[in-house]
Amino acid sequence: MEFFDVIQTARAMRRYKPDPIPEDVLVQLIEAAHLGPSGSNRQARHWVVVRDPEIKQQLADLNRAGVSRYLENNREAANPHVDQGRRERFLAAVEYQMNHLHEVPAIVIACADTVVTPTDTFAVGAAAATEVWGAVQNLLLAARALEVGSVPTTLAFFGGGREKAQEVLNLPNHILPMVLIPLGWPTGNFGPIRRRPLDEVLHWDRYEHKSESPERPRV
Questions:
Q1: Ramachandran region, residue 198 (left: φ > 0; alpha: ψ -120 to 50; beta: rest)
Q2: Lowest mean pLDDT: which of 45-49, 56-60, 87-91, 98-102?
Q3: Measured between alpha carbons, how far is 182 from 148 in angstroms, rounded to an integer?
Q4: How far is the first Cα of the chain from the last one, in angstroms, to the nearest whole number?
Q5: Which of 16-30, 62-76, 86-100, 107-121 has the lowest mean pLDDT?
Q6: Using CA atoms, how far apart are residues 162 and 62, in angstroms rounded to an integer?
Q7: Of the candidate ranges 29-38, 90-99, 113-122, 164-173, the one whose mean pLDDT is the lowest
Q8: What's the CA gap between 212 and 47, in Å, rounded?
Q9: 3-state DSSP call for residue 104?
Q10: For the segment 140-170, what is each residue's pLDDT rounded down to a tens digit?
Q11: How high is the pLDDT of residue 120?
Q12: Which residues, 6 or more positions from 117, have their beta carbon under 8 angstroms from its beta carbon?
């Protein structure tokens, strides 16, 4: 695929076929992630690829707890900038993934190494997130190029979920699970990504106050 076709059609996919993903494809995706940007070339991240059914189930249980809390507190307020139909489809997809996460072929856990060397303390927060998220984007785009569905989520690690995930994955204290990424062959079709018009968010040289209402338009 052309590079910009990948970017423009890398939609979040939450429904997958049960067919396994070959190991060489999984390795190719992690290789792409491994080449992602890294501050000072620390490469302070690790990737756990989970295929074991028991471990997938434990991660799915953590995700269920996180998603349930999210839906309980945010169902009425979720995605206020989209129309009612799209909002309901989004919530249905999130609930479907919550109920079927244990069935996906593979789950990737992107982890931040918060201590790279004994003398180099790696901040837990913005620095750790930056170290991981750029590489995660590489993985998502590589997955799209290979027709693999994916979507990143952090809900499994809220409310004590991170510590429990460390235990499930046998991670030492300084390796923090940051992002959970299910992978599978999608049941639906990739397609154009919907975003606000570029002229609403693009500014030259300095921030330009737009004439429209500050309330975000529905898309």
A1: alpha
A2: 87-91
A3: 10
A4: 27
A5: 107-121
A6: 9
A7: 113-122
A8: 43
A9: coil
A10: 999 999 999 999 999 999 989 999 999 999 9
A11: 53
A12: none
Give the residue with greater pLDDT, 210 vs 10. Answer: 10
Exposure string over 166-204, b if 16+ CB within 10 A, otherwise e: bebbebeebbbbbbbbbbbbbeeebeeeeeeeeeeeeee
Q: What is the DSSP string of 23-80?
A: HHHHHHHHHHHHTS--GGG---EEEEEE--HHHHHHHHHHHHHHHHHHHHHHTTTS-T
Nearest partner of 47 among 34, 35, 37, judged by Cα: 34
**Distance (Å, whole) CA 85 – CA 180:** 27
Write down the pLDDT at residue 148: 98
Looking at residue 41, its pLDDT comes to: 85
Q: Which two tokens stand for residue 40?
A: 């000072």
The distance of Cα 165 from the centroid of its chain, to the nearest Å, equals 16
| CB-based contact 93:15 (threshold 8 Å) | yes
